[in-house]
User: Which sequence fits this backbone?
């Protein structure tokens, strides 16, 4: 007791040091800070799969290539964002954790050869994390960054062509339509920028941050915001046409099909709203949802992944739940539908990618494959 | 440890609403509120610390008297504490209570000015929507003097390294003022009193140094809290001193008469 009393300050100091170190992340925890994403082109799936970017065969998940080949030796950081793909290249981004106590994380955009995964170029000038993927158009790769900038890179060499500074982090994937880039920022603005030089055509201000990608249909942009509203904005002028109130933030982007806009808020409330802003139906899933909904190719089903790993298929006509599949992990990126298959990614789960039948949710494969214990 | 993070984050949002959407003003006022709430504990810590110092001559006497009987020495020391109405653990309590407050603040800054999307997503389900005007505020404006309050100091904003230095200076100043003066101790003084005095002197430097190193890996918003908090304690010290209250403990230590 006496020993404790005389040294109690030091004991407390050591306890405090250990707790603070743990809380600061110096304990070396490899917990993901964002989510992974997939893009499908033909029979290939490109995925930013945490420690590697990889290409898989969509039919059977057979690995085609991975970058870097040996992540433990050639550490390139964690790959999070949804890959952008054209005929020749796959563009992904990673965050390399800081090395040492005073080290800084590095945030890098990588262009890889689509056939082999060989590095073509890299861009490492951004100061913040890349959260969502970029978009390709007009020979440029456009991507937002947590440092508040939108970067436009030449796809051939990765040179910075222009950048546009917003007032806060940019966590949304831009939408490129002809010569315009539409991108939302956490500074509560949705910007329309010239694709060629980044000049502002117009900006629309909401009462909350924009973190999702807008959907464009017949000259109207539909986008949700952290003001709990789904906004319809005239794509030519940036003026608001109407807004629809949800129950919490709209993070993921909405989808539009046959004069109906489908969106989900982070509380798992799914809304079908007509193009005049009136609710068609509403479905409460009572789960936490980050990603926006995705439509089946025929527009009859709506797929929504949840933070607790459940993938839901809803009937687009009335929101009726057709099926749901539970997975271990968090499904935070939008799923991808290709033909009769829906693909999803998971973080902190037993597998990181899964392929299911759109009709009934039956599993086709998982990656890595789950080995059954005998 | 993070159980205070959501309440603190929501209070920060509310303050942000009423303070002209200024993140720095919200952090300063939150610090002021927390300092006022923890004021009785801080005063108790100072009082306890002062009393423990005043015990030193008595403790030294006991140590000499029972130099060869450690068990008896411990018993007599405990008796001494009891008679003076002092709980030797009392000095630790405020520090223990400050820990969840620090963690709460770390969490609040992490949620209000998130640097990762998963932090923001987690907070989206814990915003008190019934508080007026807080819908749509998150993430708060994070720039202050060109620094990102949601990120640790970085070479890209080299001046942000001044904050950990200021944390060191202000925390050292606070420690210096709050710690009662001790008699000079020689390095070969092996007595308990000498040991404690040496520890106190070392604490005055090691604790601020530790705080400085921690703030290097935490969002700069937390450094602002530590700086303001230390400055408020310095102001509080001078206020009490000039008003003659001297930590609420007037006069010297009074021991109850010992039963023979």
Assistant:
């Amino acid at each position: 007791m006496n020993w404790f009393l005389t040294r109690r300050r030091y004991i407390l100091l050591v306890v405090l040091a250990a707790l603070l170190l743990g809380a600061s992340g110096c304990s070396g925890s490899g917990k993901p800070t964002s989510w992974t994403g997939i893009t499908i082109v033909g029979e290939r799936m490109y995925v930013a799969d945490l420690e590697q970017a990889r290409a898989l065969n969509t039919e059977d998940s057979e690995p085609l290539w991975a970058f870097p080949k040996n992540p433990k030796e050639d550490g390139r950081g964690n790959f999070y964002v949804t890959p952008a793909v054209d005929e020749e290249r796959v563009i992904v981004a990673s965050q390399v954790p800081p090395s040492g106590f005073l080290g800084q994380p590095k945030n890098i955009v990588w262009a890889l050869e689509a056939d082999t995964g060989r590095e073509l170029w890299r861009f490492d000038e951004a100061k913040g994390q890349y959260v969502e993927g970029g978009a390709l158009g007009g020979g440029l790769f456009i991507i937002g960054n947590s440092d508040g900038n939108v970067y436009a890179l030449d796809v051939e060499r990765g040179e910075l062509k222009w950048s546009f500074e917003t007032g806060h982090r940019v966590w949304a994937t831009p939408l490129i339509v002809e010569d315009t880039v539409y991108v939302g920022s956490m500074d509560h603005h949705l910007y329309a920028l010239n694709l060629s030089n980044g000049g502002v055509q117009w900006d629309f201000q909401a009462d909350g941050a924009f973190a999702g990608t807008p959907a464009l249909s017949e000259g109207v942009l539909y986008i949700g915001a952290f003001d709990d509203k789904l906004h319809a904005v005239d794509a030519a002028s940036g003026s608001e046409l109407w807004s629809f109130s949800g129950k919490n933030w709209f993070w993921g982007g909405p989808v539009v099909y046959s004069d109906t806009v489908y969106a989900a808020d982070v509380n798992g409330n799914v809304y079908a709203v007509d193009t005049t802003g009136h609710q068609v139906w509403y479905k409460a899933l009572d789960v936490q949802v980050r990603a926006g909904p995705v439509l089946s190719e025929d527009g009859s089903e709506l797929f929504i992944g949840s933070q607790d790993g459940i993938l839901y298929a809803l009937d687009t006509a009335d929101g009726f739940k057709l099926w749901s599949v539970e997975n271990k992990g968090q499904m935070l990126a939008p799923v991808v539908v290709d033909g009769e298959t829906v693909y999803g990614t998971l973080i902190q789960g037993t597998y990181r990618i899964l392929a299911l039948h759109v009709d009934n949710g039956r599993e086709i494969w998982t990656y890595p494959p789950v080995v059954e214990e005998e | 440890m993070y159980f205070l993070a959501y309440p603190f984050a929501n209070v920060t949002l509310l303050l942000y609403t009423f303070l002209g959407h200024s993140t720095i003003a919200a952090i300063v006022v939150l610090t002021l509120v927390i300092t006022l709430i923890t004021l009785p504990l801080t005063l108790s810590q100072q009082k306890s610390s002062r009393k423990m110092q005043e015990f030193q001559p008595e403790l030294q006497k006991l140590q000499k008297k029972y130099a060869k009987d450690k068990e008896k020495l411990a018993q007599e020391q405990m008796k001494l504490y009891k008679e003076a109405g002092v709980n030797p653990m009392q000095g630790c309590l405020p520090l223990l209570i400050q820990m969840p407050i620090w963690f709460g603040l770390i969490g609040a800054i992490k949620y209000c000015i998130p640097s990762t999307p998963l932090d923001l997503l987690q907070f989206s389900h814990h915003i008190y929507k019934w508080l007026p005007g807080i819908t749509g505020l998150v993430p708060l404006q994070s720039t202050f003097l060109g620094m990102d309050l949601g990120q640790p100091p970085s070479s890209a904003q080299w001046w942000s390294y001044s904050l950990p230095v200021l944390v060191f200076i202000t925390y050292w100043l606070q420690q210096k003022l709050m710690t009662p003066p001790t008699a000079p101790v020689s390095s070969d003084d092996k007595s308990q009193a000498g040991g404690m005095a040496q520890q106190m002197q070392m604490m005055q430097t090691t604790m601020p140094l530790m705080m400085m190193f921690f703030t290097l890996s935490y969002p700069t918003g937390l450094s602002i809290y530590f700086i303001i908090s230390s400055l408020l304690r310095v102001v509080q010290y001078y206020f009490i001193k000039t008003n003659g209250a001297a930590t609420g403990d007037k006069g010297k230590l009074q021991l109850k008469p010992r039963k023979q």
Remarks:
- Residues 8 and 200 of chain A are 61 Å apart (CA to CA).
- Chain A has one domain: 3-259+266-279.
- Confidence is low (pLDDT under 50) at residues 25-29 of chain A.
